[in-house]
């Protein structure tokens, strides 16, 4: 089955008049392939992109995997009808991805004589492309062992042992983990993020509601004395009465380890007296005391005023 890696679903294919090849804009920014995110790396990593940001779509004549030439690191002179992917070229048809344990797809050789999906290498923060332009080999030696001990929420029940390497939801310190390929197949939202985190992952629990859902939820304002249905922290729903309403200020930050939180109290930031001075400037480096009592480095994103309700059953 043909698989199209890294192409944008809404970019729109355009046929080139001269050679008849289909070109679209890759969904994954070039910055996601670099080792440092600096401009010199970006210049070195873009030789196979057209001036308009598009890239040729090529298909392996053996396994029929479809990739952008830029995403897979194929130079224009090799992007022909006889092109074969690295796995087929080396007749490594029985090899699977060392990060997700699945075969097929756009595989490139890793530096330990194993194979890895380009998509998995991009999403796993510690995996690095040694030759950025050619997207190969992939250095997986710096991936911490803790990642390989995480259990994928999608396939853990079908496997007797832990296999592959998992990524986690980017919201707060959400522990939800999954293989990149399992997440893609299940429809987990994975979006390009600001360097150095590369990919922002949203599990189903933190999936942002659609505009229609938000509008439905905001059909009416609540007032004291109104009877509502509330969800308790035990997960059950109870009929309650609204006692009072208050606006609460929450801060949003991006932690240095790639995690994210949008429900911090101003006093959680210990490097600044926010109650007296107000919120930090956007992008300002701050120190945050987390619920475990430890202090973590982060960058301030925004301040949000949220309507809070006190209820009683």
Q: How would you sum up this structure, described in words?
A:
This protein is α+β, with helices and mostly antiparallel strands. It has 2 domains: 4-204, Zinc/RING finger domain, C3HC4 (zinc finger) (Herpes Virus-1, 2-Layer Sandwich); 227-312, Vcp-like ATPase, Chain A, domain 2 (Roll). The protein is built from 8 helices and 18 strands. It has a 5-stranded mixed sheet. The longest helix is centred in the middle third of the chain and has 7 residues, at 180-186. The N and C termini lie far apart (56 Å).
Secondary-structure map with pairings?
Layout: E1 4-5, E2 14-15, E3 22-24, H1 39-44, E4 55-59, E5 66-68, H2 69-72, H3 86-89, E6 107-109, E7 115-117, H4 118-123, E8 128-129, E9 138-139, H5 145-149, E10 167-168, E11 177-178, H6 180-186, E12 189-192, E13 199-202, H7 211-217, E14 227-231, E15 237-255, E16 260-264, H8 274-277, E17 285-289, E18 295-312
Parallel strand pairs: 1-5
Antiparallel strand pairs: 2-3, 3-4, 4-5, 6-7, 8-9, 10-11, 12-13, 14-15, 15-16, 15-18, 17-18
């Amino acid at each position: 089955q043909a698989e199209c890696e890294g192409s944008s679903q809404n970019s729109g294919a355009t046929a080139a008049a001269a050679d008849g090849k289909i070109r679209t804009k890759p969904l994954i920014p070039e910055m996601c392939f670099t080792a440092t995110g600096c401009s010199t790396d970006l210049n070195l990593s873009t030789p196979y992109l057209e001036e308009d940001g598009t890239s040729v779509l090529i298909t392996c004549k053996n396994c029929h995997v479809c990739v952008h030439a830029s995403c897979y690191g194929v130079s224009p002179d090799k992007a022909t009808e006889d092109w074969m992917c690295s796995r087929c070229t080396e007749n490594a048809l029985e090899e699977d991805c060392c990060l997700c344990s699945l075969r097929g797809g756009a595989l490139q050789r890793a530096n330990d004589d194993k194979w890895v999906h380009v998509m998995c290498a991009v999403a796993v923060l510690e995996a690095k492309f040694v030759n950025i332009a050619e997207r190969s080999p992939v250095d997986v030696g710096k991936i911490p062992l803790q990642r390989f001990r995480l259990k994928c929420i999608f396939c853990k029940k079908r496997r007797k042992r832990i296999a592959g390497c998992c990524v986690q939801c980017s919201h707060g310190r959400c522990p939800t983990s999954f293989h990149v390929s399992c997440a893609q197949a299940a429809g987990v939202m994975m979006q390009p993020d600001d360097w150095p985190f590369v990919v922002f992952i949203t599990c189903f629990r933190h999936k942002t509601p659609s505009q229609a859902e938000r509008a439905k939820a905001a059909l009416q304002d609540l007032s004291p004395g109104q009877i509502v249905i509330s969800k308790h922290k035990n997960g059950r729903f109870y009929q309650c009465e609204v006692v009072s309403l208050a606006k609460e200020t929450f801060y949003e930050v991006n932690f240095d380890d790639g995690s994210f939180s949008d429900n911090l109290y101003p006093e959680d930031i210990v490097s600044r007296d926010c109650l007296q001075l107000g919120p930090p400037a956007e992008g300002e480096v701050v120190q945050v005391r987390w619920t475990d009592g430890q202090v973590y480095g982060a960058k301030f994103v925004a301040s949000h005023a949220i309507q809070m309700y006190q209820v009683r059953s």
